[in-house]
Amino acid sequence: MQPTSQPEPTRAALTVDGRRLSYLDFGGPGRPLLALHGHFNEARTFTGLAHALAPAWRVVALDQRGHGFSDRPPDFSREGYVQDAAALIAHLGLRQVVVLGHSLGGVNAYQLAARHPDVVSALVIEDIGAEIDDDLSFCLAWPHRAPTRTALVEQLGAAVRYLTDAIREHPDGWGLAFRPQDMVTSVGQVNGNHWDDWLATECPALLVHGTRSDTLTLDHAQAMAARRPNTRLVALATGHTVHETDPAGFAAAVRTFLDAL
Length: 261
What we know:
The protein is of the alpha/beta class. The protein has nine helices and twelve strands. Helices cover 32% and strands 24% of the residues.
């Protein structure tokens, strides 16, 4: 249950290389935690978690490049995503930040730690591996525009359950906040072997695995935890989007990990 005194997050933005990066700052006096979402999602996906962790933790959630209310970038490179996150941390003047990431955001989180170990104090990685071979081409069939929100929801079909936050009214009709082709391009940059980045740091890390995930296998999750020092593995009975499928269980696992820091 969310505390009744929990304030609404502040929507703010910074400019990086002429691009607008939008983010939500849930505020409060707590220690800083930067949250990075996965493909198709945006900062709002972490609203429930931010409420669950308050007031001990101040959650700042970024709309990553090409998602949410952030501008579309010239590329979806690994370095680009990491530089955006580092720029937000510097913009807010934060130090020793816990970085939490789901899927795409999880890779961005541990690569941020690998490249900027001085600013990342701990990691929470939600259902993503160190070796990735994903395919998002199915999203190319989603409609570009529809005349009404209802029509868009009908055309999206079962996929709409994952896209509620991303539905927008545009000048030429209703559509998504992102371009599906950009997501295909982005995941192409994510795919690959990232073991060197995963093993580059030894700060405390929590790896959360959804036991019904089609993205991260149990064997791979166990290998990630075994090979990296100071890494704890928690498995929950969900699919890939653990924080949405079991928000209470996910928040409890994250809180237990954070309390031990």
